[in-house]
């Protein structure tokens, strides 16, 4: 597939990369039909956000069609259209139950880094540095979406 990748400050390229795959039974694969570019993307482009890595896929606001779901995914069906915001939320932790989705306790796989820089963890975010989980973003043909039930909107 083709994806927009960060190669360094002011160096973004459209590259060919492997298609995403289901990693967890709750995952879904989304075929991206449109995505947004916002001011936060410019922070990455300008090198303002730490912990970006050469080859990271950008884009944290996208929509598309569900093309595959994991065996334990009961939230989405193949063929559904979804909007995916940049936060990845589990919907089950204490913070999610309180409605504090931006600080989901389970989705940032690099929460130790975020705690050192921000003083607290954040939710995992699509396409927005390894401080927020290092998840590939939506400026690609396909995206793996973990926890798609609470993360997506149909």
UniProtKB/TrEMBL annotation:
Cofactor requirement: Zn(2+)
Domain Alcohol dehydrogenase-like N-terminal residues, every copy: 27-146
TM region positions: none
This protein's UniProt keywords: Metal-binding, Zinc
Source taxon at top rank: Bacteria
GO molecular function: metal ion binding
Name listed for the protein in its UniProt record: Alcohol dehydrogenase GroES-associated
Organism (species): Paraburkholderia tropica
Lineage, highest ranks first: Bacteria, Pseudomonadati, Pseudomonadota, Betaproteobacteria, Burkholderiales
């Amino acid at each position: 597939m083709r994806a927009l990748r960060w190669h360094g400050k002011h160096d973004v390229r459209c590259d060919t990369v492997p298609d995403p795959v289901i990693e967890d039974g709750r995952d879904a694969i989304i075929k991206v039909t449109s995505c947004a570019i916002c001011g936060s993307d410019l922070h990455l482009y300008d090198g303002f956000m730490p912990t970006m890595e050469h080859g990271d896929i950008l884009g944290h606001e996208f929509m598309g069609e569900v093309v595959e779901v994991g065996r334990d995914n009961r939230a989405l069906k193949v063929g559904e259209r979804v909007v995916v915001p940049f936060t990845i939320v589990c919907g089950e932790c204490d913070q999610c139950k309180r409605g504090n989705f931006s600080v989901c306790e389970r989705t940032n796989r690099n929460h130790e880094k975020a705690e050192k820089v921000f003083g607290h963890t954040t939710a995992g975010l699509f396409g927005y540095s390894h401080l927020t989980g290092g998840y590939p973003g939506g400026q690609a043909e396909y995206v793996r979406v973990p926890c798609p039930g609470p993360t997506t909107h149909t």
